[in-house]
Amino acid sequence: MSFVAHHDFETGSACDLRKAGVHRYAEHPSTRVWCMSWWFAGTHQMNRWWPGAPDPVPLLEHVARGGEMGVHNAIFERTIWNTLIRARYCPHWPELRIEQQNCTMARAASVSIPQSLEIVAKVVGAKAEKDMEGNALMMKLARPRKINPDGTLTWWDTPEHLARVMAYCDQDVMTETEIDGLLPALTHAEREVWALDQRINDRGIKLDIPTIHHTIKVRDIAKERLNHRMKELTGGAVGKCTEVAKLVGWVQAQGVPCESVAKGEQADILVHADTENVPQVREAIELRQDASKTSTAKFDAMLAVACADGRARGLLAYHGASSGRWAGRLIQPQNLYRIDPERDGDSIHSVVNILLTHTAEDAYDMISMLYGSVMTMLAKALRTMIVAEHGNTLYGTDLANIEGRLQAWIAGEEWKLDAFRAYDAKVGPDLYCVAYGKAFGENPAAVKKQNAKRQIGKVMELALGYQGSVGSFLSMGKNYGLKPEPLIPVILDVAPEQFAIWRSRYIGAKDKRGLPEDQWAAVKTIVTGWREQHPRIVQSWWDVQDAAIEAVSAPGQLVAVLDGRVAYLATKSFLYCRLPSGRVLAYCNPRVKTQKEEWFEMPDGTVVDCEGFTEFDFMLHLALGGVRKERVRKRVDYEGYDSEKRRWGVFSLYGGMQFNHIVQGTARDVMVGGMLRAEQRGYTLVLTVHDEVLCETPEWFGSAEELEAIMTEGEPWLHGCPLAAKGWSGARYGK
Description:
- The protein is α+β, with helices and mostly antiparallel strands.
- Helix content is about 50%, strand content about 15%.
- It starts with a strand and ends in a 5-residue tail after the last strand.
């Protein structure tokens, strides 16, 4: 009979697990194990072990034989076992290997259930629930009671507390065992991906610790200078850039409206400052912007997570997004400061050289003189703190515009696939020029020479593929410095008739987003232009939406869509979406809801939404000749984790969202195929960031060109989709 053993550790440390990660935590000298509970599933005999107790012989024999180990949060349990127990307590214990572990946390993530044991148990309907009272005591024992003057630690480890924590640990093992039988298993292919994720996390990335320390000194000098200038500029009214309330009061005293200096309000303040000719307010807000670059706090985070060998581990979360993509942890490598390699590469290289060859004071002065904002340049240099070990090289490869390519391939937008092929063959313009030219009847080659139009095309491509409209365009435009007002003359020149039509519909519009009429009409013209040239993608939004509704309405029936590349199936409390790769996305507890929509069609063609109308509003629009229309629409609601509110909640599917999930999920599967091939061919993966992989190999091995080829080989199921990648190599993370 094949047994599965389940186990769980309870630990304590002066090291903050949330900031340091489990690898740094496990090697910290203060970290200790309080107990381990374990049993073999089906035996109902709970066992306990603690330091000093006899060996759990049956469990050790099971591990030595390669037996399956059921856990929740495999990386924690494995690292405590291998790094802490075997190094400090019991060096004779056998190594616990990744391949032996069956992680219910990973399995929950694969069906979009939050990874907390408490939430997983509730969602899957486990009878054994997490012991929250015991959890509170465990959290108490997790940190020392106090640090004594001589550096020793005093703990809360009374016999009563330890006995209660052991009972809590028992309960966790029982809960983990039950949810093991309730969660879908990872497929063989996904277990491969998960195992690769675990190896990547255990390897970690090498950090340039001395340069990080030096850069922190430069950053702190920059903060000091910014605070000094703020105090000088405001006549002492604001002593530091962080004194928000004082800054608000000072700005108001200069005659500029200001209720907050939060990031979202700063643009309006700057406009008022320029309009009312108050340059000192502009400078104060810019000082605040510079000083509040939170990304520079990542230098401290890097030091907090670095292990004794200078490597940062545990930076990725398997299936951290519902699409299956990775999420970042600890230093959040997925959220590094945005840079443009072509624009910023030389300046970042120069800044690194300055940091490596000058004192902190001199480095500050030189960077300030050459580039202005020291804080901005340090934030841009964050990536370069990731380095190769001595004798090794880093290789990075980024899949080029993978989402745009997959949008076209999945939807069957053949003209766009041809445009990608032409660009890859260097016989056609880039897709940002193509998008603008296609929407407004201009030659893409001519658009390339007009940066303003190419920039519009770029924002169109990045913002509109998932049913985005005015709000999406504005948000993406903000990321690339594209403001709505300068769009007006450009759009009036190329599409005056469409612009006039949208102006006439401004009054009844729901999506004005605070824009005046001309700006709104310009953005709506852009949105419409993109959609008219992408009929297959637009139709895909409606097709996948209808397919999900049909599947939930008829549980057990497979509903294929997009020429069979995608299919939906509702069964056993989940709506599954099968991707082109065969992998599935999951939506928990789906149900079909109906909603009534009402609007007036006015004589001039204007459409006025009736949401929020009073009886008087209805009578008025009827009197003005409006025709009242209505329809009942269906949608699919499902349950998921609300990351903003930090709770389980209800969400509504719509076509653009579903198409986004399909494209993002497929992009992940393309990446995964390349990652597995790269690993098999000797490129040791140490990180993945969005659509990029980072490998570390001996200096004599491989090339950027070879890694590009590996990542773009494509998959058997991806026939007809052109792929491209851009690679690099070096001693530092250069992208």
